[in-house]
């Protein structure tokens, strides 16, 4: 296998290719990208390297826009009645896998393949068993059959270590009727992606304090308050009554760029629609002044240079945090619920010794 394949939000194929090229360059590897605009996936052909080895060392954090990443076969032409016939000869080479998934791009055309996707899952498992590919929890690989369209498939191998919490990075989250905005799902998805489940009982519980910059109409504030957290919601705009009337929520009609907390809080969240460099600098100030222990924020990216802007902002943030002598954990992704933006999570874990 010499190809890396990443499903992504349609329209972000070029960003995936740029990210893959940079990630490969850091490993002394080169190649070239291929993607149809708005196809919902990108490929990167490696020069003289085994994609199975490369994929094991990649992290979705360095790719930002990729919803997952696989080593992929060359395109395989599939046709009824037995669409798996041309796939079968390649299965044994996958090695032991943890799970098996069939999927298609997150596009209108891709969604029309939903029935075929479901129909192929069982026969693919059976074909893997026939090929003596072991399937079990502790195995390092993930078998993915990615249907580019009804006639073309890629047999892929992902690394079990970096599996996203949902197949193909498409979450199954339900928006409750009382949620003030669809944005509420963004924060919930970010928690699932960035906060290990075992930490939820400590970090997202009554007693924790938060500031929400650019809070209106209140989806993010609602997510935190319904977990019993005390929230200061900063926005000149009105909050939906479900959060505005909540005794856990204090609404400050103020500018999020100048408002300061009276005492440090556990969480800063920020969804202000503003220049990304400005939001980035603001969050850096909160973190380096220790006004918050952790932050989740959106960077709204300009159309033309989304990858470059994201790299620049995250680089600057690292410089600021390093300069302040902080130890920290940082992740950045384009979430399923993100549009022209990415979501960043930073948690300060300590301070370097002088
Ligand atoms: C995308 S909306 C936030 C949606 C919110 N996260 C939710 O879940 O409902 C952006 C908000 O940022 C606010 N905003 C933009 N610039 C601001 C500023 N300088 N200070 C405070 N709020 C600001 C806007 O008034 C708007 O309500």
Report on the structure:
With 354 residues, the chain is α/β, with parallel strands linked by helices. The protein has two domains: 3-169, Alpha-Beta Plaits, CATH 3.30.70.2810; 184-351, Rossmann fold (3-Layer(aba) Sandwich). It is built from twelve helices and 15 strands. Strands 1, 2, 3, 4, 5, 6, 7 and 8 form an eight-stranded mixed β-sheet that branches. A seven-stranded mixed β-sheet has the order 11-10-9-12-13-15-14, with helices on both faces. The relative contact order is 0.11. The model has no long low-confidence stretch (mean pLDDT 96). The structure holds S-adenosylmethionine (SAM). S-adenosylmethionine (SAM) binds at residues 180-181, 183-184, 214-220, 234-237, 255-257, 271-274.
Brief overview, please?
The chain is of the alpha/beta class.
- Name of the CATH superfamily of the largest domain: Vaccinia Virus protein VP39
The assigned CATH architecture of the largest domain is: 3-Layer(aba) Sandwich
User: End-to-end span in angstroms?
Assistant: 47 Å
> Pairing-aware structural class of the strands and helices?
alpha/beta
Number of strands: 15
CATH class descriptor of the largest domain: Alpha Beta
**Mean of residue pLDDT?**
96
Helix content: 25-40%
In terms of per-residue confidence, which ranges show pLDDT below 50 for 5 or more consecutive residues? Answer: none
Order of helices and strands: EHEEHHEEHEHHEEHHEHEHEEHEHEE
Q: Which overall shape is indicated by the principal axes computed on the Cα atoms?
A: globular
Biggest β-sheet: count, sense, barrel?
8 strands, mixed
Heteromolecules bound: S-adenosylmethionine
Helix count, per DSSP? 12
The whole-angstrom Rg is 22 Å
How many structural units, i.e. domains? Answer: 2
The CATH topology of the largest domain is: Rossmann fold
Which percent band covers the strand fraction?
25-35%
């Amino acid at each position: 296998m010499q190809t890396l394949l990443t499903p992504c939000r349609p329209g972000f194929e070029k960003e995936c290719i740029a990210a893959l090229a940079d990630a490969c360059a850091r490993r002394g590897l080169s190649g070239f990208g291929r993607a149809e605009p708005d196809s919902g996936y990108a490929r990167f052909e490696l020069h003289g390297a085994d994609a199975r080895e490369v994929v094991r060392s990649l992290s979705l954090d360095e790719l930002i826009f990729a919803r997952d990443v696989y080593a992929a076969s060359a395109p395989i032409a599939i046709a009824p009645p037995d669409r798996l016939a041309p796939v079968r000869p390649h299965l044994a080479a996958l090695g032991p896998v943890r799970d098996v998934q069939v999927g298609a791009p997150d596009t209108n055309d891709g969604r029309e393949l939903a029935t075929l996707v479901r129909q192929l899952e069982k026969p693919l498992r059976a074909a893997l068993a026939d090929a003596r590919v072991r399937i079990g929890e502790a195995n390092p690989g993930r078998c993915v059959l990615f249907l580019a369209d009804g006639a073309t498939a890629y047999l892929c191998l992902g690394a079990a270590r970096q599996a996203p919490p949902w197949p193909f990075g498409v979450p199954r989250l339900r928006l409750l009727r009382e949620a003030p905005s669809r944005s509420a799902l963004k924060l919930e998805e970010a928690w699932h992606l960035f906060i290990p489940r075992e930490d939820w009982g400590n970090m997202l519980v009554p007693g924790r304090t938060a500031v929400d910059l650019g809070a209106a109409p209140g989806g993010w504030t609602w997510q935190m308050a319904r977990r019993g957290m005390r929230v200061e919601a900063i926005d000149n705009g009105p909050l939906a009554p479900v959060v505005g009337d909540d005794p856990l929520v204090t609404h400050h009609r103020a500018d999020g760029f100048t408002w300061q907390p009276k005492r440090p809080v556990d969480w800063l969240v920020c969804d202000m629609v503003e220049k990304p460099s400005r939001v980035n600098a603001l969050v850096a100030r909160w973190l380096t002044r220790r006004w918050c222990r952790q932050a989740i924020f959106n960077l709204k990216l300009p159309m033309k240079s989304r990858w470059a802007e994201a790299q620049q902002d995250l680089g600057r943030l690292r410089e600021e945090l390093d300069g302040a002598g902080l130890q920290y954990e940082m992740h950045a992704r384009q979430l399923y619920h993100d549009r022209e933006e990415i979501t960043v999570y930073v948690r300060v874990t300590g301070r370097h010794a002088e």
